């Protein structure tokens, strides 16, 4: 088997050969058929998240070790089961791998929120991920069938799909006169636009600095698009939404985008949900929180139940597909470069 690995933080990934592992216990051996290239793979490749003012959250200090195989949007075919791998998965069938795996026995995991487990074993973030041709999955329960969907699309639901779905659920929007603004029309933002009609009844607008991404968002059903680089954009959002968006989801996560999102919200009672991990630090007038009855929250990926829901919706034809670019696994470095340079529409998917 081959793995495309980070051998030094920020340096080009290197393809290396390994013996194909045997599944033990409850493990399942999967032959990877597609793996999406997510924006957080850029941070994982660099080895840190930018906390602003020169501070960094260093991945090695929280347990991510070199050499490291990124990739958490994984689809693959089951090729072998460990002796205790019971759970109804079939050899020869393809599944999406749920990567946000926790310890499996703490209170958080037991209530179904493994993505929030304090002892995570996330594939492609703490444990090796899908930039490879074979992968061990700890238990069959993390495999979700996606019959009827293209594998290059289905794999994106493991991160950008569940992340979008969970963030939409945090907007609190319940009526069709409550507008939602999405900031950032990359892979996650586009999946949010595609999933929004299934989760929020109000109109959805998209803000992105890239005219090509705004075009793509319009074509995918955005009610309006805005250029956050335009100084008049926030006023235009407030006018379009009849006084301000009830919620904003920021899929970029820079101080500039959070500031822009806050200026687009209704004067009181609005919610800003931050998903993007671009980085930086933001000074915020504290009295805004009570005076504007403002809710600021973060949303981090999603649950196994969210993944099953998103795949069910997609199978029912309720999730328009996002644009996909297929690339061979050998092009992982070029894919990361293109993503960092903002040259990608929708999602790039590596195919071993
Ligand atoms: Zn991701
Ligand atoms: Zn746990």
Walkthrough of the structure:
The protein has 352 residues and is α/β, with parallel strands linked by helices. The chain has two domains: 2-159 and 302-351, Alpha-Beta Complex (Quinone Oxidoreductase, Chain A, domain 1); 163-298, NAD(P)-binding Rossmann-like Domain (Rossmann fold, 3-Layer(aba) Sandwich). Helix content is 26%, strand content 23%. It contains eleven helices and 17 strands. The chain has helices at residues 39-46, 107-110, 151-154, 160-169, 187-199, 211-219, 233-240, 255-264, 288-291, 304-315, 332-340; strands at 2-5, 14-17, 28-37, 48-52, 55-58, 73-81, 94-97, 134-137, 143-145, 180-183, 204-207, 224-226, 247-250, 271-274, 295-298, 324-328, 347-351. The strands form four sheets. Strands 3, 6, 7, 8, 9, 16 and 17 form a seven-stranded mixed sheet that branches. A six-stranded parallel sheet has the order 12-11-10-13-14-15, with helices on both faces. A hairpin with an 8-residue loop joins strand 1 (2-5) and strand 2. Helix 7 packs parallel to helix 8 (255-264). It is globular and about 60 Å long. The N and C termini lie close together (10 Å). The model has no long low-confidence stretch (mean pLDDT 95). One zinc ion is lined by residues 38, 40, 72, 159.
């Amino acid at each position: 088997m081959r793995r495309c690995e980070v051998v030094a933080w920020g340096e080009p990934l290197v393809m290396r050969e390994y013996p194909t592992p045997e599944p033990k216990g409850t493990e399942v051996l999967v032959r990877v058929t597609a793996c999406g290239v997510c924006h957080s793979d850029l941070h994982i490749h660099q080895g840190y998240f930018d906390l602003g003012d020169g501070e960094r959250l260093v991945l090695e200090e929280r347990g991510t070790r070199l050499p490291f195989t990124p990739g958490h949007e994984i689809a693959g075919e089951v090729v072998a089961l460990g002796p205790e791998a019971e759970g109804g998965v079939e050899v020869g069938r393809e599944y999406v791998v749920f990567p946000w795996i926790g310890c499996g026995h703490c209170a958080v995991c037991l209530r179904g929120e493994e993505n929030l487990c304090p002892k995570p074993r996330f594939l492609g973030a703490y444990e090796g991920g899908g930039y490879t041709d074979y992968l061990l999955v700890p238990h069959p329960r993390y495999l979700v069938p996606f019959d009827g969907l293209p594998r290059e699309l289905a794999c994106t639901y493991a991160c950008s799909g569940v992340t979008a779905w969970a963030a939409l659920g945090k907007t609190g929007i319940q009526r069709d006169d409550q507008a939602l603004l999405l900031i950032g029309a990359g892979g996650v933002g586009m999946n949010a636009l595609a999933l929004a009609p299934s989760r929020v009844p109000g109109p959805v607008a998209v803000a992105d600095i890239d005219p090509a991404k705004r075009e793509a968002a319009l074509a995918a059903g955005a009610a309006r698009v805005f250029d956050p680089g335009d100084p008049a954009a926030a006023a235009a959002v407030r006018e379009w939404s009849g006084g301000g968006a009830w919620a904003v989801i920021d899929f970029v996560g820079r101080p500039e985008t959070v500031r822009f999102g806050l200026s687009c919200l209704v004067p009181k009672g609005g919610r800003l949900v931050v998903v993007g991990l671009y980085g930086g630090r933001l000074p915020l007038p504290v009295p805004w929180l009570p005076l504007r009855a403002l809710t600021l929250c973060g949303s981090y990926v999603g649950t196994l139940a969210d993944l099953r829901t998103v795949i069910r919706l997609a199978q029912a034809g309720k999730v328009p597909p996002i644009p996909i670019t297929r690339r061979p696994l050998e092009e992982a470095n070029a894919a990361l470069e293109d993503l960092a340079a903002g040259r990608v529409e929708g999602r790039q998917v590596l195919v071993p």
